[in-house]
Amino acid sequence: MPSSAKSVVVLDFETTGLSPNMGDRAIEIGAIKLVNGEVVDTFQQLMNPGFRVSSFIERYTGITNNMLRTAPSCGEVMREFASFVGASNMVAHNASFDKRFLDAEYSPLGIEYQGQFACSMLIARRLYQDAPTHKLGDLVRYKRIDHDGVFHRALADSEMTAKLWMVMLQDLQSSGIVDPDFSFMQKVSKTSKSALSSLISKHAKSANV
């Protein structure tokens, strides 16, 4: 059965670096659960990676070694998060980054997720080709989305991504695509910019038949 794009878990990781293959770990996760476009639950937790983070990461995220010292382990937090997500589909801004870290943190615990991923950044690149950049903060300003000015903390970034996601769904609605399913959003992210308008018009026609 198709799953609505309005019912997803939007997540964001803060990490010790760019690649779990280089030994980097997650240090914070934030997530927003949307059901029919409404926020029904949130999840936020710091996690202790088992080693000190660099001063650059402390400055960039505002997450200090002192804050992480008393945080629960990554494994403990990821088990809680798996229960929060359940079988939901997931959305992240630059999803390949967050998916890599989710896979790396889940793998030693033997956890597998049932949902799929969509990338709000790739979709925004298709829908907002005139945006100055497709970084989250720039898109939030470009679409005049309300925000509190906090970026690079996991819950704040997942809240912004969830708002951007709903704005993208509203913009698609004005093109005749009402309540698209999640797989359609994945398709948008993989469609070339030049082929996008024909994908949208074809989908709008079939939805109205």
From TrEMBL:
Residues 7-174 form the Exonuclease domain. It holds the Pfam family RNase_T. DNA polymerase III contains a core (composed of alpha, epsilon and theta chains) that associates with a tau subunit. This core dimerizes to form the POLIII' complex. PolIII' associates with the gamma complex (composed of gamma, delta, delta', psi and chi chains) and with the beta chain to form the complete DNA polymerase III complex. Its EC number is 2.7.7.7. GO terms for molecular function: 3'-5' exonuclease activity; DNA binding; DNA-directed DNA polymerase activity. It catalyses: DNA(n) + a 2'-deoxyribonucleoside 5'-triphosphate = DNA(n+1) + diphosphate. It comes from the Bacteria. This is DNA-directed DNA polymerase. DNA polymerase III is a complex, multichain enzyme responsible for most of the replicative synthesis in bacteria. The epsilon subunit contain the editing function and is a proofreading 3'-5' exonuclease. One of its GO terms (biological process) is DNA replication proofreading. One of its GO terms (cellular component) is cytosol. Keywords: Exonuclease, Hydrolase, Nuclease. PANTHER family: DNA POLYMERASE III SUBUNIT EPSILON, EXODEOXYRIBONUCLEASE 10.
